[in-house]
Amino acid sequence: MAAEFVSLSQDDFELYAAQMEQVKARVNAALGFFALPPAYPSVEAGLLQLRLALETVVMSSLVSNRSAIERVTSSFAQKDYKKALALAKEANPSFWPQPSEQRLDTETNLMRMWPITTGYLTEDEYKPTWGRLSAWLHATNPFKAMPTPVEGANFGREVIGKLTTLLNHHSVRLADRDELLVCIMSELETDRVHVFGFSR
Length: 200
Known about the structure:
By secondary structure, the protein is of the alpha+beta class.
């Protein structure tokens, strides 16, 4: 597969797919926690998985630039999510996935990728979403009201819905690469992540 492209390598495909498998695993774990009777520990565990999934999305397009991804992971380790986002964007201005769906073009009778324009987690929503998820992961002031576990689980499910729409079928340009990478999160026959490339 790698030989068909000028810049994308087999390692790029495999590393990106592995990142997306991590996102899938974390989203599925979160759903499991939210399916339990609502209680703070299980809801908090689910929201933690979603925060980690968001961080993985930010880092994923940098798998082709090791030094950049190390700077971003270092910022996340220091809980500086704003700096992590800025570093990711500096290394790859096209780092955020672009959601799409495959539909039949009735004029050409060919399958085409059509952009999804609503209902997905946007780059602008990343910071406030990360912030709300993180707010659940700290001990709270006993003199302040806390959201209920049901509210936390509902928020988590909302994030999952937007994250699923963003990633289910998406394209992204990796750092320092010319071709477009396309990702399908659940291939029909295997249920595994499938990635392939498009030349310009």
